[in-house]
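Morning run. Coffee first, then this:
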Amino acid sequence: SAALVSRSGSIDWLCLPNFSSPSLFAAILDPERGGRFAITPVQPFDVSRRYAGNSAVIETEYRTASGVIRVTDAMIIGDSPCQLEPLREVIRVVQGLEGTVPVQIIFDPRPDYGRSRPRLEARGRSRICRWGSEALILRTDHEPATGEADEGRIDVEAGRRINFSLSYNRRDIAVLPPLAERVAGRIVPTGARWNLWCGGLAYDARYRDSVLRSALTLKLMTFTLSGAVVAAPTTSLPEWIGAGRNWDYRYCWLRDAALTMRSLIGLGYLDEARAFFNWMLHATRLTWPELQVLYDVYGRTEIAEQ
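And here it is:
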């Protein structure tokens, strides 16, 4: 899946367990009812952002009148399917760099595009959002306040570090060790995995850094479990409000994915091309002799036809 983080530190779009699942945070579509997970300085701020090396781990620095903080966001890549860790997890780390910065925390999940009425439970330093058989678990090593939209305020001093782990669960088995002991052990290998992948770039000409970042972005839209490539991580951000051209791009549109694979093959990423080709053979076999314009990440068409 993909988490989209605004410059103000708010996760405004996140669908779990996969790209084409109903949203959990969708403030990008509806700021009032969509839901978000925000870590935002209370004071006015200047912001700068960068990716950590050749990775998808993003670092955002906020400079206010009273100090500077850094927020690091990472969607974790697991080391092994047999490891008893959350299979889908976003880690957020707040670090105080200078002075003291008051920070507002808002944890306001709205499952199913804001249509579901979840139950929000407080268990010590954890917040559990439940709907049906699914759950979204927020763990932290500070004590947040409670409320209908779970909000809290923290003063982040220079040298202080606050960890957040946001994980999805649907009857998954997971062992959750103390947070401070495992966050670095999850972020660092994730960054290393991305750096290793970027090392396979078979391109050494002008604008190499930009080409590499573009290739990494294409890779981020690949559904790991099947090899399908979504056209974009977002649904119908209206192309025409009130009109008919409001497509859902979280499906694998064969034309778009073929162009993506052509780019990745040219850059030396043959494993992705093989995975996509195998997925395409599987998906199209299910609808043969008729080809569909788009399939979901598992190769099904039922959702796309609705």
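The first helix runs from residue 179 to 198. Good start to the day.
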